[in-house]
Amino acid sequence: MAWSLGAGVAYDVTDRLALDLGYRYVDMGDTESGWNNFLNARGLQDEKMKANLVSSEVVLGMRWAF
Question: What residue numbers bound the domain in which 58 lies?
Answer without folding.
Answer: 3-64
